[in-house]
Amino acid sequence: MDASDKCSERRWVVLGTAVLLMLGGPGCVATRNFVRTRAVQPLEAKIQGVDKKVDTKTTELDSRITDVDRKSEQGISEAANRADAAGKDAQKANQAAQGAQQTADKAENTATQAQQQIDNIDSYQPVKTVTVLFGVNRADLTDDDKREIDSLAQTTSSLKHYAIAVEGFTDKTGSKEYNLELSRRRADAVARYLTETAHVPLVKIHMLGLGEAEPAADNKTGDGRKQNRRVEIRIMAPQTAQQAGAQRAADNPPANQ
């Protein structure tokens, strides 16, 4: 039962009670028309006024409740939209963080590889060595010497980074000053052939005359002095990671089980 029905029921109860009081009072004689005109109609008018006020208040209350419901639904919808937007922002932030981590990992790997390359370049190892022998007080190359130098130069075609060390020596015959100059002329003869005939870039060649230092054999014998009149030509190249691993394995063989 709603508020309007309750008001109508109350109205008739009040009206009936008033009629009974008027008809049943001591010494009161009334006709039906008199009761209706003087009592019932004014009371009905008052009750109708009350009903209108109740209806008005009920309508206002319903309107307020509807407005509250509308605002609540709007607030819930806005909150849901904000939560959804926050979730999307969090997802984007997570994706950005993952991308940044991947970039950092890639940069770290690149730096590691670059450092390994630098370490390898600094760790030059001999690839091939050729020794050219000279006659007494001579600094010219024979045909056999040139063929050996050509064979050595061909090795550089497969190398990206390399250097060629050319070191000239003499026996102990003669003064140290003269032997030093002679060793330089011998080294120069080899370096010239490498650049002019074998087409090795000059920047790759490092030449040094050492005179009678570092003898390869005893200078007291003719054969020993012959071995000391020489130029050592050595190709040096950085050790790759694979070569380094193979070298470590060779240096540290596994124990027999």
How would you sum up this structure, described in words?
The chain is an alpha+beta fold and 257 residues long. It has two domains: 3-74; 123-239, 60s Ribosomal Protein L30, Chain: A (2-Layer Sandwich), CATH 3.30.1330. It contains six helices and four strands. The chain has a four-stranded mixed β-sheet with strand order 1-4-2-3. β2, α4 and β3 (205-209) form a beta-alpha-beta unit.
What's a quick, concise take on this entry?
The chain is of the alpha+beta class. It contains 6 helices and 4 strands. α1 (3-24) packs antiparallel against α2.
Key traits:
60s Ribosomal Protein L30, Chain: A; 257 residues; 6 helices; 4-stranded mixed sheet; alpha+beta
Q: Examine the coordinates and then state which fold CATH places here, giving the name of the CATH topology of the largest domain.
A: 60s Ribosomal Protein L30, Chain: A
Name of the CATH architecture of the largest domain: 2-Layer Sandwich
The helix-and-strand class reads alpha+beta
Q: Count all strands and give the number.
A: 4
Number of domains: 2
Give the CATH H-level superfamily of the largest domain.
OmpA-like domain
* Share in β-strands: 5-15%
For the biggest β-sheet, the strand order reads: 1-4-2-3
- Specify the overall morphology: rod-shaped
Major sheet: 4 strands, mixed
Q: Under the CATH scheme, which class of the largest domain? A: Alpha Beta
Helical proportion, percent range: 55-70%
